[in-house]
Amino acid sequence: MGTPIGNLEDITLRAIRILKEVDLIAAEDTRRTGKLLQHLQIKTPQISYHEHNQEYRTNELITRLCQGIEIALVTDAGMPSISDPGLQVVQAAIAHQIPVIPIPGGTAVISALAASGMSTDRFIFEGFLPAKESDRQERLELLRSETKTVVLYEAPHRILRTLKDLATVVGMEREIVLARELTKVHEEFWRGHMGEAIAMYTNERQPKGEYTVVLQGAVETSLITDKTELKRELQQLLNQGITRSQASRQLAKLTNLSRREIYQLDLDN
User: Fold this and answer.
1) Coil, strand or helix: which one is 30?
2) Phi (first) and psi of residue 45, to 5 degrees
């Protein structure tokens, strides 16, 4: 069930009715959901369901559902399983042939994208970038030549690092929108180039609030069909310190060859 991402007025009439009618509410943070329920004057009991207890709690919820108990799954804000807990219990319910009924609500990714001014015809949602450096770099390399609009989430204490990491692969001139504190009192949309965003948070202001980053897609390029040119592009990427696997995956988007075929190219001939 979707819950407000900030402004409590964004709760739907259907969501209010369901929260009243179900037997139990599985909440990411019962204290935070409790404030919403208090605001709505709803007294339905809660049980915690979050990333640290979902392994064993999923089985408990499935058992209760099999007994005929109706349960609403909510997170602190937005839709469950969208960069939030929820996927595991949804998959388990499907496996047990228990109906899963989505109750729509706001999500930061769609709200930010819709108001960003970036192309909405085709986009990808990356959630939070990996924390592990090797995984992070591999994900960033995939975004280098991504032509669709890219949307991702970031916390205030990591936003500058993420902007700098993005700049290393897409350049300082790529257009970007930083949506901050969506639907809340201090909601803000900042629009500009990557370099300007980095300078702003380096010299002028401290990051505050949760961020949704909307990144302009790369300009589409024609396919590389000449193997000599492909080898040259591969060698240039390797010279930049990119692994052969990462370079092959990136170039596969620019040619009709597979990643494996590019990986196996003999650069000496």
Assistant:
1) helix
2) -65, 155
**Strand 71-74 relative to strand 123-128: parallel, antiparallel, unpaired?**
unpaired
Show me where the domains of the chain are located: 8-95, 108-215, 227-263
User: Which residue's structure tokens are 């998959």?
Assistant: 91
Amino acid (one-letter) located at 95: A
For the residues 50-72, what does the mean pLDDT come to? Answer: 96
Contact in structure between 246 and 138 (CB atoms under 8 Å): yes
CATH code given to domain 108-215: 3.30.950.10
**Of 246, 235, 252, 257, nearest to 169 (Cα)?**
246
The single residue listed with the structure tokens 């919820």 is 61
Report phi then psi at 46, rounded to 5.
Answer: -120, 160
The dihedral formed by the CA atoms of 51, 56, 62 and 66, expressed in degrees to the nearest 10: -160
Per CATH, the number for 8-95 is 3.40.1010.10
For 196-263, the DSSP string reads HHHHIIIII----S-EEEEEPPPPP-PPB--HHHHHHHHHHHHHTT--HHHHHHHHHTTBSS-HHHHH
pLDDT single digits (tens) 119-158: 999 999 999 999 999 899 889 988 888 999 999 999 999 9
Measured in residues, the chain has a length of 269
* 201-232 confidence digits (pLDDT tens): 999 889 999 999 999 998 766 566 677 877 88
Buried b or exposed e, range 215-231, using 16+ CB within 10 angstroms: bbbbeeeeebeeeeebb
Dihedral angle, C-alpha 214, 220, 223, 228, nearest 10 °: -80
Q: Look at the block and give the residue holding tokens 């970007």.
A: 176
